[in-house]
Design goal:
There is one protein chain. The protein is built from three helices and eight strands. The chain has 166 residues and is an alpha+beta fold. The protein has two domains: 30 residues, no CATH class; 100 residues, Alpha-D-phosphohexomutase, C-terminal domain (TATA-Binding Protein), CATH 3.30.310.50.
Amino acid sequence: MLNLLNIQLLLPVFIPRERDFLLANISDITKVAIPGYYRIPPGWENRRRRQDDDVLLEVTVTADKTTQIQVENTFMRWLKTREKGAVSLDNKKITCWYCGGVWLHYTINTNVMSLYLHSGGEDAFDSLADCANDIARLLYQNHSDVSIKWTEHPHRRKYLKDTTGT
């Protein structure tokens, strides 16, 4: 006879950092640390927008001041593998890089790197998520102390760089 008290329920758990599944006891699921990988919020994706609206995801990367330079260098090496171009951003020509259906630019301040990922069209959100997670994977694999914050901005803004809606 089967003793039901000794059966452990195993559930598949997605671990974004490894982008793989593992089996975990249901009691262990709350103990799984999930790093800050990006998931598209349905409320942001499903907002009314036109195909030509610019979709902007801001990525704020912070690290301890002792490792910030290494984090920046890791990101710069990754950028060198991307196609470089120029775009007009609010009537100013800026340097940008391409990552799938995304073009991005960045600023660096003390202990903070701000990345601005822009996309448009039918696959805008999937393209943003793919690029954002490529960057997150790169940084998490190389710098365990890095912190990444995701900010979704309104689709309709007076200027592309604006972070508030019109």
